[in-house]
Write a structure and sequence with these properties.
2 strands; about 15% strand; Pemi-like Protein 1, Chain: D; 2 helices; about 90 residues; two-stranded antiparallel ribbon
Length: about 90
């Protein structure tokens, strides 16, 4: 268990090992919750904003020489195809 001191300005320094373990860098935000038995600190993790266009090409599949159709992705349509039925 780690301890921290409160400075004259009301600041608390978290131990370096804990900051590294949690991936906290400069400007990290911490939510402070008051509970019946004390305080609870919770790290607020933000999700970086990303444009959808920047994700183009992330998923690549080998072409099998057969064009894909929307029905190829519908599991219910597999039941009605004669080649998918097992005798």
């Amino acid at each position: 268990m780690s301890t921290a001191l409160v400075s004259s300005k009301g600041q608390i320094v978290l131990p370096a090992a804990l900051r590294h373990k949690l991936g906290m860098g400069v400007g990290a935000k911490v939510e402070i919750l008051e509970e019946s038995d004390g305080l609870k600190l919770r790290l607020i993790r933000t999700v970086a904003h990303t444009e959808v266009s920047g994700m183009a090409g992330m998923v690549k599949a080998k072409a099998r020489g057969v064009p894909r159709r929307l029905e190829d992705f519908d599991p219910a349509s597999l039941l009605s195809r004669p080649e998918s039925r097992k005798a």
